[in-house]
Write a structure and sequence with these properties.
Protein name: NAD(P)-binding domain-containing protein
CATH class: Alpha Beta
Oligomer: single chain
Structural class: alpha/beta
Radius of gyration: 17 Å
Largest sheet: 7 strands, parallel
Organism: Staphylotrichum tortipilum
InterPro entries: NAD(P)-bd_dom_sf
Number of strands: 9
CATH architecture: 3-Layer(aba) Sandwich
Amino acid sequence: MKVIVAGSTGLVGSTLVRQCIASDSVSHVWALSRRPLPDAVGDSPKVDVLLHDDYATYPPELLADLAGAEACLWAIGGRATQFPDAATYEKVQVDYALAAAKAFLAALVPHLPEGKLFRFVFCSGKFAEWDQTKPLHFMADTRRIKGKAEQGLCEIADADTTKRFEVYCARPSGILPADAGFASRLSGKLYGAIGVDHLAKGLIHIAVEGSKDRIIENEQLLAL
């Protein structure tokens, strides 16, 4: 499978690129990034690094470079507290993801071989909430905005009359970096934290195999 990784320099995205290189199921990776990747990754014969500044737009020349992609692993976002305000967070978390999904559906899906599907795998977060009016007592902005992104992506897939564009939303709890210490791993067990390599392998598995569920909760990710 040929895949796009969006957010290739973040914790999850950079791990996705490395795990794609290691995976026998992935034959090629287009790594969308605002800056060059480390040589050890970017020099892999499996990887094409495409420098892209504006994730709200996908010009024809970029889409031409992505021709043949069968999946997108979307790892752009994070938590609302990592951004200057909720409006900026919503732009990055919702607007960018929906713009990419619409562009890939319109430009990439029609050129896939007959019978091939395109899977958009969105790395969301535990407790994402679709109901934008529901009172939330913790991480309200993060949960609502991730839920809004999930809902928008699913609506795009539902409106696809060809039924060749699938959306999956993975909801990890806390994510542990590969070098997390003993204390972090121990405390992580209290809230079901998942190791970033485990998460990346799970997202790739969903891209390759699909899933019976559109929303994949943390417990399901841990079981992959």
